Amino acid sequence: MGSDDSPDGTVRRGHSDRSASRVLSQHCFLSGVLPFIVGFLLVLSIFQFRSSSFRYGSSDPRRLLASGDSLQRACETCKCPPSASSAQADLASKLAGTLTSQTAAAVLDAANSTDPALQTVRVNEDSLESLFLFVGILSGRGYRHRRLAVREAWGNRAQVPGISAARFILSEDERTPQVQKEIEQNGDIAFLDHKTNYKSILYKTYFVLEYAVTNFDVRFILKTDDDAFINVVPLISQLKLLCETPGCKNERVYMGRMAQRSEVMLQPGHKWNNEVYLNHTGLTTYPNYMMGGGYILSGDVAMGLVNIHKTMSLKFTPIEDATVAFWLMPIDLRHINHPRFFTWAQPCCFKAPVRREGQRIITRFQLADEMEQELCSDDPWLVLHKIDSPTKMRFIGNRVAECSFEDSDKVAPSIAPYIKRPAETDEADRHASDPQNLAENIPDPKTAQPKIVQLQ
């Protein structure tokens, strides 16, 4: 007879029912609490991962300021001293509220102001690493072979602390296990928190500017692609010669190979169709723009665009390089149309393969005559875009590695028209500013003695 059986053979149900009830209660408790605990741990792990990645976390004080939050909240995040008064917070709030009535030039002035209340992106510029040139290289999930070739040809030589840095830019949904291995090996990939679509190139381009001014106290920013070769050493030398302000901090430079009076493509289904631009502006031609294979903005200009976008939102259209020029239209810039930027939409820079009669072997790579003659000259090619194979990229890298760019202070003819000769008097300044007298103020590259600015 079991313990729950009565003497007359009937079963006692009370004890059994109470035991079942306790088991059921415990099961319900565990089924309700365990998912909560697991979810909490998962959220905590994701937060820790995001804070250690290239992307900016939502608690980053720079992001707080850029999104219009008060300076006081940003200071609470970065534990500023009590000296950061509420007056500064009020100034920052007023700035965010009145930016819509300011011109783009005024925004640039605010970005370069020494008043911390006028800084809407940087919280403490002194804490950022000083950098002369940042190179943002647009890439994608399936282009690991291109990135490897770029690193070997010129990318690794561009990683010089305090002088230059290069990052490949990918969208977050392009973070594959193979890409993650690249990050662990090289640490030179940054991710845009945006899904890949037809506007990805423009979003990545904007991210190049945002990443550069948020992570570095940068002088110049070069946007390029993973099928372009950058001749880093002479490029930096020429940018130094072009500087007109102390420390190269307010240069207002927009440099590249200029496309002039280009018509807006309106053919349905065409990859360059930009009906969005027509509908937004009513214009059928683009402003003069630097072609997208490689162009440079000075850090102050990039900072101005980032500040504008944080407060008012820039208009994004499918055509990246023309849209950047559209953003820059109202700003008084130094447009430098550099003839040594090969950024045309056509392959660079080799002769067609030649099959020798009676032989099955095709001749090895040969650079086009113009490229061969000028690659190591006093006025070398700086950007070579549309290199259509990693092998060709490495070939050019090896060729340039043999060059000797000794006289970095010599003015290349390509930039001579854009270097201002130091004026001896105010009258000379006024005379030089007259467009009718511009030609006579272009220095002779053999005799010019431009002001060389040494970076601190």
UniProtKB/TrEMBL annotation:
GO terms for molecular function: hexosyltransferase activity. Pathway: Protein modification; protein glycosylation. It is found in: Golgi apparatus membrane. It is an enzyme of class 2 (transferase). The chain crosses the membrane at residues 28-49. InterPro entries: Glyco_trans_31. Residues 421-433 have a biased composition (Basic and acidic residues). It is a single-pass type II membrane protein. GO terms for cellular component: Golgi membrane. It holds the Pfam family Galactosyl_T. Belongs to the glycosyltransferase 31 family. This is Hexosyltransferase.
